[in-house]
Every structure is written in structure tokens, then in C-alpha cells.
Amino acid sequence: MALSAQEQRVLELIDEKELIDLAVAMGNITAPSGYEQPMADFVLRWLNDNGFERSFQQPICEGRSNTIAILNGQGGGHNLIFNSHMDSEQGMPMRLDEAPPPGPTARVDYNKRRIFGLAVQNDRGPMAAFMIATKAIKQSGVKLNGDIIMTMVVGEIGMGPVDEFRGARFIGKGFGSRHAVTHGVNGDFALIAETTDFGVTWIEAGAAYFKITLEGRGFYTPRIPPRGAVKENPNALIKMIPVIEAIEKWAVEYEHKYTIDYPVGKMVPKVSIGAIRAGAPYKPSTTPRSCSIYVDVRVPPPISFSQVEKELKQVVAAVGLGGTVECFMARKGYEGKNVEPLVDAIRAAHAAVRGSQPPPVDTPETSMWRDINIFNEVGIPAATFGMSRKSAPDAAERFVEIQDIVDAAKMYALVALKICG
């Protein structure tokens, strides 16, 4: 499709080297979920250095602040929110007594035309793309009618406070975005910039976390009673084995039962046992008095958390070993409404930059939880769209193609010009 002179001017101002440098710089900041302040401060400095006068932070709790910037329009147009999360999985310890693992290591390989780094993929590369796109619009002198609102938020990665892992540092799944939309950030549409292989979706699943606990008795190893039926075993960890097997069987049934075919793509809600706790690692000479497993259940928008909890309780009860089931985190999924203008703008931008319509969205993109759900929940039509994420053949290194991130920045710019007017 033919571009206007103003659109061409904006795209010409998207500087590849500047975009790469920004993505790599942000990809090398150690700011895991719960400790995002270094990223928030870096982004605010960049905004100030690049002349974004309406840029500020929203402090949420100690060490966690959203960074917001607004490029004002003249009025009368639609306001577009760009959204990405600043937190990364890199640098997150698995236990409170554990030293954090190595932080992000992003790098660029100009020969292969790739930017390496998990934090670049999720989610600082897409963030850099819309930051540079908005800067290009600002530099171009194009007068928008609506505002562009950039929201760089904390707490998208899926944490839920439980056991000793409590407090505001352990809240994820929309923590920062929910704070933003309930503390003054409003828009007519929201584009959640994440990696989607250039597919677009406005539907995503919900998520619920459950803690399942079985009780046992502590026995010194030489005094363990003769082994017999699992039901009589005092070891809570051993008792948990048939419960795990039952949940794994149910997970397959659940996935098939609740798969939904939407016009945008298929949603396949999955179940995963992500953690187990029992006994004292420094004292294996005593059988665990209790054992807990922690289960992640993805929940399609039409299905209630109550229904999922009832099914899971039935599965545990059917094993016949007792046990409690506790839901400690629940976030609903949503199907976006009135998103057609935004989706049409995304499709037109993809056609302008790559000469084709966006590819079909992959099943994982509709079956996961992202901050798109926060915006659709509060009635701001939202869609998720962004570049591809890739990995080396041995999966040892994650990367994005330089051409992909550049094209994404161009598409974000065209979407903003179309939506804001």
C-alpha cells in the first residue's frame, strides 16, 4: 500500500542503530520481577534526554515503579496506549536463601543480523521498538490529534504471593498495568507490545495458581514402619506421588475439554505442576510431615475459577489420601471488544511494511496470560502484536532478528499515526 509523505518521513526517522543500541542497553539491565526500579530509572532518563516533557514515574511500592510518557496530540483524536513490561525472568532467585542467578546478557551480532538476550525478547525489544517509533513521530513534526501514551510497567511476569514469598514484591500478572489504568492512564485503544511472530490477537486465557498439600508424619529413618500401601506410608512426599499422577492425567482431559476455537486462533489451556516442597534438605533422615505442590492452570474466558477449583478438588479427593486445595492467585482472561479499528490498523501497517497480511497467530499466544487482559477487563480495547522470538538450534541463546525489530518499530509508528489521526 502507498504511504503518505508524512508516514514516509516518520519511517525514515526510525534509526536502526539507535534502536539496536536501546534494545541492547535495556536488555543488559538486571531488573527481575519485583526489582524493576533500575529499568524504570533508565527509561525515564531516556525519555527526558529525548525531549518527552510529559514523562514521569508511578511509584507502586519500594523498588517497583511504572514509567509513563505522553506525546500530546492536538485533541479530537483517539488516544493510543503502548504497553510493555520492564520485568524480566533473568536474575530471579528460586528461593529466599538463594543468590540471584546471573543477570541479563544482551549483545548484538551484526554479521548474523541478530540481537541476543532473553530480556530483549521478553519484553524490552518490543518496548524499544515503540519508544523509537514514538520518538520518530515526535521528531517528524507530524501533528497528531490523539495522544500516544507509553506505559513501561512492572509486574507482568506470573508471580503470586504464597508461603513465605509474600508482599508486594511477589505480585505479578498485571500488577503494574492494573496500577496504571486505575491511577490516571486512560486511552481509547491499547497495543500490548510483545513477541507474537507478527500475528495479532485480542483474546487471551486467564490463569489460576493452586497449592495442594498432603499431611504425613515425621519418622526417623531407622524407625520407619514396614512399607505397605501408599495410604499407610507416613511420608507425605511419597503420598504426593499418586496425586501428581492423577493431576497429570486430569491435565490432558482438561486441555481437550476446554480447548476453544476462536476466529483469531485456537486457545489450548494447559496445566503444569511447577513446584514441590517437602521436608528439610539438610535433614533427610526425617520423613516430611507435609508436602505441597504448586499448580498453574490456564483458564479460558468463559470458564469460572470456581469450576476449575471444583474439578481439581475432585481429582485430589478421588486419590483417597486427603489433602487440601488452595487457590492463591487468579487472573481472568478476556476477549477484547470493539478492537476492530486497532486490529485493522495493525493489519494495514503489516501490509505496508512487509507487503502481506499478518500471519495466523500461534496457539501459545492466545493460550497464555499477558497484560492485554488488564486493558480488556477495564474496557480499553486491546490487542497484542509484535516481532518474532527465536532461539539457537540448541536453545542455548535467545535472539531477535534485527530486521524484525526494525519492522516492528515501523509498524508501531504506522499504527499510532492511523489511530491517533
Provide a short characterization of the protein structure.
By secondary structure, this protein is an alpha+beta fold. It has helices at 5-12, 16-27, 37-49, 118-140, 175-181, 236-258, 305-319, 340-354, 363-367, 372-377, 402-420, and strands at residues 54-61, 64-71, 80-85, 107-109, 114-116, 148-153, 189-193, 200-201, 203-204, 206-215, 260-262, 265-267, 271-278, 290-299, 324-331, 334-335, 382-385, 390-391, 398-401. The chain has a 7-stranded mixed β-sheet, sandwiched between helices. The chain has a 4-stranded antiparallel β-sheet with strand order 4-5-19-18. A 4-stranded antiparallel β-sheet has the order 13-14-10-15, with helices on one face.
What does the model show?
The chain contains 11 helices and 19 strands. Helix 2 crosses helix 4 and helix 4 packs across helix 11 (402-420). The protein folds into 2 domains: 5-204 and 334-420, Aminopeptidase (3-Layer(aba) Sandwich), CATH 3.40.630; 206-331, Alpha-Beta Plaits (2-Layer Sandwich). It is α+β, with helices and mostly antiparallel strands and 421 residues long. The chain is 35% helix and 23% strand. A 7-stranded mixed beta sheet has the order 1-2-6-3-7-17-8, sandwiched between helices. The protein has a 4-stranded antiparallel beta sheet with strand order 4-5-19-18. It has helices spanning 5-12, 16-27, 37-49, 118-140, 175-181, 236-258, 305-319, 340-354, 363-367, 372-377, 402-420; strands at residues 54-61, 64-71, 80-85, 107-109, 114-116, 148-153, 189-193, 200-201, 203-204, 206-215, 260-262, 265-267, 271-278, 290-299, 324-331, 334-335, 382-385, 390-391, 398-401.
